[in-house]
Specification:
Layout: H1 2-6, E1 9-15, E2 22-27, E3 30-34, H2 40-49, E4 59-61, H3 67-70, H4 73-80, E5 84-86, H5 88-92, E6 102-104, E7 111-113, E8 116-122, E9 131-136, E10 141-145, H6 153-159, E11 164-168, H7 173-178, H8 183-190, H9 198-207, E12 215-219, H10 228-239, E13 247-248, E14 255-260
């Protein structure tokens, strides 16, 4: 039944962490790349790993202008003529030759990229006008939240009742505190416009309605200030599930396709 197949929403990661981020959302013939923090060549290599090429991409959505999120945007958008969606603030921080491809959106208004409805929402992070997203296909809601300093009511409202959730668990507070980062960087990462720690993320999971959740993946895990073995039990406790149900996005491997589908 093609109707059932069409309603399946898929998502994957090409890599997640401070050395580069890129996330894929796919529905029918529409494939969105959220951020592209790897070189175009590296991105193409990683796309092949999940069975895609750059010409399969419908659009690139940019959350914010930091280097680990935009490294390949300029080359990919030019080479394959891919539209790039960004807030006005983020767009102003992109390389000038991306401008012909830019479609600006408001953090407060939904828009469509072919088969996928995108609901952006504003987040606290040390960038010009950062946003994160919930993706809808009519049946399912898939939330993405990384690069956020603290949880706001807007974030809670956006991410409640998601069927799939990719959620930052950047650092363990003690590891960051005792780690090798210089003091200014510790302050930045752990501050109100930095990144979510494990406890903040677990508290969000405990607070929002997760009764529809088919998948949870921990994202943007610091290689120096965190470990999946710390994240999984905290998330599992918040969700009342076993730690092995918690997905982990890796810096080098990302994670392979996951599907949202009706039981």
């Amino acid at each position: 039944d093609s109707g059932t197949i069409d309603s399946i929403m898929r998502f994957a990661s090409l890599g997640s962490g401070s050395r580069g981020n890129a996330t894929l959302i796919s529905q029918g013939k529409t494939t969105i790349l959220v951020d592209c923090g790897f070189s175009a060549r590296e991105t193409e290599k990683r796309l092949r790993r999940v069975g895609l090429t750059s010409s399969d991409l419908t659009a690139i959505l940019v959350t914010h202008e930091h280097a680990d999120h935009i490294g390949g945007v300029r080359v990919l958008s030019q080479k394959f003529n891919i539209p790039v969606y960004a807030t006005p603030g983020t767009a102003a921080g992109l390389p000038v030759d991306v401008m012909p491809h830019i479609h600006e959106f408001s953090c407060h208004e939904r828009f469509n990229v072919n088969d996928i409805e995108v609901s952006p929402f504003p987040v606290p992070h040390d960038a010009r006008e950062p946003s994160q997203f919930v993706f809808h296909n009519g049946d399912f809601r898939l939330g993405l939240l990384t690069d956020v300093g603290f949880i706001t009511p807007v974030i809670e409202s956006a991410l409640t009742l998601c069927d799939g959730l990719m959620l930052e668990a950047n650092h363990d507070m003690a590891m960051l505190d005792q780690g090798e980062y210089p003091e200014y960087l510790k302050q930045r990462v752990g501050g109100r416009f930095g990144h979510l720690n494990n406890v903040q993320s677990a508290e969000l999971l405990a607070k929002i309605d997760t009764t529809r959740l088919q998948h949870i993946v921990a994202m943007h895990i610091s290689e120096k200030n965190n470990s999946p073995t710390l994240v999984s039990p905290l998330f599992a406790d918040a969700l009342n599930c076993t730690p092995d149900w918690i997905g982990i996005a890796e810096q080098d491997a990302g994670f392979d396709w996951r599907e949202l589908k009706k039981a």
